[in-house]
Amino acid sequence: MITDSSPARQSPAARRADSSFPPGLWLALVLTIGSTAVWIAWPALRGVAPLDLTRLVITSALVGVTELLVLTVIEIRLAPWRFLE
Known about the structure:
This protein is mainly alpha-helical. It is built from 3 helices and no strands. The chain is elongated and about 55 Å long. The chain starts with 11 loop residues before the first helix and ends in a 7-residue tail after the last helix.
């Protein structure tokens, strides 16, 4: 049996939890890309090796695109009604 979980029929608490879902996903995206950039730049920050900006940009872009795909799949699984409109 499929239940109607459209935003119009949700309780106020469910709507509040629903509105905090996208910022949580964006926070996960930003933290993942930021931690990748720090991980790549860490030797340069310690003074052990020169900063490789090309590697930093390419790796962060690849991680960002991969993370966007993963977060989209998570959102489709956990909040499918957002994609039905």
